[in-house]
């Protein structure tokens, strides 16, 4: 009898494991929804739709991208947190996901407990631009002027707490210079005022910068990543003049908290495979971005590291969400 009971327990366990494996191997059995916290047409939206097209063909199921802009990503993130942890609702976030709790005193979720990291998808440098006729031929020239006349120079950026704002504040902090930070409602208006001479320089992302650089209306003093960027190999990195400087825009895939480990592993594997296809690589290159495709653990570590990195910068600048 004891032997029979032991066999029954073992058989039940094997059956349960088989059912679980079968359930995960059949994923997805219906459309998967990906939230995008920003309006259609931006870098995050383009990345989500490009990846969605690739994995939908791999899965034989449609991927529906839903744009849910608002409150710097909080609207879409809150909707994601309230979704079942079954893999059918995901979100592509930008690097602001890690800094939102620093900017919003009453954020409606826990950034570290209410999400399941799946993969860090890709990244792109921001670019420090000046007008084509600017007297500053290098980042060193600009820093020398800022030190000689503190507060005499201004930089434009798109929105409080954005990656371009943080890029400028990090430069002020590490180079020990006094610059005036001037907010705009987007990168395009910031460039317009740069061209009009209202500001001396502007931090912008790749898609905004490249057309102006190609037209010859602006010059790039530096890219914000620690090493030079493949899209602008002749432009110095910020760290060549300011040691320790390194920042970027990144994008990553998250699910709600409580997702099964095997489902997370499958999603990570499938999206990393999609990132390595020629179609996705080509699309990212047009955005001035590079694919990454990390493990869930590495993406979780990245979010936490960014939160710790930016906390003192945000505090020193007195940043608060608009």
UniProtKB/TrEMBL annotation:
Keywords: Signal. CDD domains: PBP2_Bug27 (cd13578). It comes from the Bacteria. The keyword Signal applies. The keyword Heme does not apply. InterPro entries: BUG, Bug_dom1. Belongs to the UPF0065 (bug) family. This is Tripartite tricarboxylate transporter substrate binding protein. It comes from Bradyrhizobium sediminis.
């Amino acid at each position: 009898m004891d032997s029979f009971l032991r066999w029954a327990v073992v058989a039940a366990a094997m059956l349960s494991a088989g059912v679980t494996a079968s359930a995960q191997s059949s994923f997805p059995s219906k459309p998967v929804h990906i939230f995008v916290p920003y309006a259609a047409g931006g870098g995050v939206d383009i990345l989500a739709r490009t990846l969605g097209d690739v994995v939908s063909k791999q899965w034989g199921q449609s991927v529906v991208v839903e744009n849910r802009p608002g409150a710097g990503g909080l609207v879409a993130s809150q909707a994601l947190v309230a979704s079942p942890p079954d893999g059918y609702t995901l979100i592509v976030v930008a690097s602001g996901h890690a800094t939102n709790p620093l900017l919003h005193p009453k954020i409606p979720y826990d950034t570290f407990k209410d999400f399941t990291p799946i993969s860090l998808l890709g990244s792109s440098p921001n670019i420090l631009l000046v007008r084509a006729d600017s007297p500053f031929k290098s980042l060193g020239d600009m820093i020398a002027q800022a030190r000689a006349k503190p507060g005499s120079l201004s930089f434009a950026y798109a929105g409080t707490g954005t990656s371009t704002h943080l890029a400028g504040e990090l430069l002020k902090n590490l180079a020990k210079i006094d610059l005036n930070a001037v907010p705009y409602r987007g990168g395009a208006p910031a460039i317009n005022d740069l061209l009009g001479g209202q500001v001396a320089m502007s931090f912008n992302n790749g898609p905004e910068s490249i057309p102006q650089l190609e037209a010859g209306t602006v010059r790039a003093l530096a890219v914000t990543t620690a090493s030079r960027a493949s899209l602008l190999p002749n432009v110095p990195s910020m760290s060549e003049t300011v040691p320790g400087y390194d920042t970027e825009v990144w994008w990553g895939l998250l699910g709600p908290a409580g997702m099964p480990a095997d489902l997370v592993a499958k999603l990570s594997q499938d999206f990393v495979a999609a990132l390595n296809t020629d179609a996705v690589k080509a699309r990212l290159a047009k955005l001035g971005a590079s694919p990454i495709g990390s493990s869930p653990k590495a993406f979780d570590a990245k979010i936490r590291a960014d939160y710790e990195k930016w906390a003192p910068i945000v505090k020193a600048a007195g940043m608060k969400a608009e």
